[in-house]
Amino acid sequence: MAAKLLNAPQSRERHRTDRIGWLRAAVLGANDGLVSTASLVVGVAAANAGRNELLVAGLAGLVAGAMSMAAGEYVSVSSQADTENADLARERVELQTDPDGEVAELAGLYVQRGVEPALARQVAGQLMAKDALGAHARDELGITPNLAARPLQAALTSAATFAAGAVIPLAATFLLAGPWVIPGVVGISLAFLAVLGALAARVGGANPWLGAGRVLFWSALAMAVTAGVGALFGVAA
Fold first, then answer.
1. N or C: which end of the chain has fewer CB within 10 A?
2. pTM of the complete model beyond 0.85
């Protein structure tokens, strides 16, 4: 019976942390694309601009925002990757120059988590015999394959999702005219933002209503402030 249990295929649990890398960039990109483009269109519309001006402003916001998101994410995540690589390089040197000390260091981490010293040293030795750098990366540095920094993935995801989000208020601007532009863009954008917030919260394991509520609050605030600025300058003109 014991042999059968040991040889039985192990089921792999699926955790939501596997999604953090792409989920964060995707949600941030789509949310920013919707909010910034809708706010831009509403602000320009409040300044009594014509339809062509609104479309040009929205399209410019889409392109500039997508490029900005890609550049920002790439630089930010690259800095994280540089830090991770530097820590891993230092661990490689320490593993080569002081392997016994590294075993003791890893064992000490397990002792702090409640493992008995003798067993902790045995576990540390076995893990390091299989993959010394991987053991230290995971348990000492907190670096795992699922959570490792991926600059290019983050940049492309942010740019693509920003553009996808920005298309929604831009399409509403194209389809609506006159006095319907501002309420239409605001209503359609907030509806999609609520869905996005709820979906992102559900995928991440949080309360969908809470996710939708906080997205709606800050998005509505951003559009209201931008509309106020646009109306101020429009009256002044």
1. N
2. no
